[in-house]
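Customer escalation, tier 2.

The customer says the design service returned an amino acid string that "doesn't look like it belongs to this structure." They asked us to rerun it and document both sides in this ticket. The original structure tokens are below, unchanged.
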């Protein structure tokens, strides 16, 4: 395929001329959103890419974490695996009340690497350094945002207070998890 049949975005991701296929990824700090309309991701397009959070649109034919290859070297695999979010609806239709990003607004982070809104009512995210298998959400939290523990590769058990009224979509990452309501 010649270069006139490709296009590259500002982050260095290379797509087919029609924009339907991601051919090669790039390293990106923070989140990267694959454009809606992309239907296919080449099997080895993401090898060697370091990405904080990868958002895959509903239009892509990749629906499982295991279908993505980030490294062929098992030693490096743990470092290169980002949090991956598979969308089942348009990006623009996300629920703003339960969605948060670490780089949006002001927040505070506890000693475990879990971020909260300044008023303590919204649990926003867990940093990639969060490795605990059990976590107790403090009293007073009302909302647990979508993908809050999306970077976690381990199974996480969240103990939540009765003050929690809203739990966003896909709270847990590839390791999975469960929620236990405290008495």
């Amino acid at each position: 395929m010649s270069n006139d049949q490709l296009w590259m975005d500002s982050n260095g991701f290379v797509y087919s001329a029609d924009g339907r296929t991601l051919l090669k990824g790039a390293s990106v700090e923070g989140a990267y959103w694959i454009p809606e309309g992309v239907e296919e991701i080449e099997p080895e397009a993401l090898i060697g890419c370091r990405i904080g959070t990868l958002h895959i649109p509903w239009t892509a034919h990749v629906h499982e974490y295991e279908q993505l290859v980030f490294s062929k070297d098992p030693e490096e695999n743990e470092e290169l695996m980002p949090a991956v979010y598979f969308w089942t609806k348009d990006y623009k239709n996300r629920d703003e009340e339960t969605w948060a990003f670490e780089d949006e607004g002001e927040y505070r982070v506890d000693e475990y690497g879990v971020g909260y809104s300044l008023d303590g009512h919204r649990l926003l995210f867990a940093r990639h350094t969060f490795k605990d298998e059990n976590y107790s959400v403090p009293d007073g939290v009302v909302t647990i945002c979508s993908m809050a523990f999306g970077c976690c590769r381990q199974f996480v058990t969240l103990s939540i207070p009765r003050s929690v009224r809203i739990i966003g979509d896909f709270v847990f990452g590839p390791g999975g998890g469960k929620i236990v309501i405290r008495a």
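Tier 2 assessment: The sequence is consistent with the input. The helical segments are 74-80. Residues 42 and 149 are 27 Å apart (CA to CA). Sent an explanation to the customer and offered a walkthrough call.
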